[in-house]
Write the structure tokens for this entry.
Amino acid sequence: MVEGEQQYVSYCGRYYCALCQYHKGTVVEAAKRLLTFVERIGSLKLIAEAQEACDYEEFTKGLEWLASKTEPCKGCRFGGGWSWWPDCPARNCCIRKGVDFCFECDQFPCRNLQKGTLPEARKSIIDTNKQIEKEGIARWLQILKEKYRP
């Protein structure tokens, strides 16, 4: 089992929770601040609609949803998260099979990763796991830290 800093690497290997802005709570805080600003400045709706910038109602609905989160994302190995894919097939399968990463499974890359919704995300999980297997988890952790470093 992974320990220390490595336990912050998601089961799929794509994310490093310790530096993730959802896990740290900064995304929710930013949404709360922006929502307060949006609610106070009534002309922003008029400007957005006049410029056809976006569906203002959907934009505020999204901000309200994000701002409503009462706690940050727990992280993949600490109970999963609300932020990206709460029913992630890679996470669920790794837990069920007792492996740390998909590549450790004798069925990798399995049908579960090759078929279904979000095909690009699934392909990325396969590619990432091949890279972890090649590089090793210690090196992969360094790569993710560089990627997510603020």
Observations:
- The CA atoms of residues 6 and 142 lie 10 Å apart.
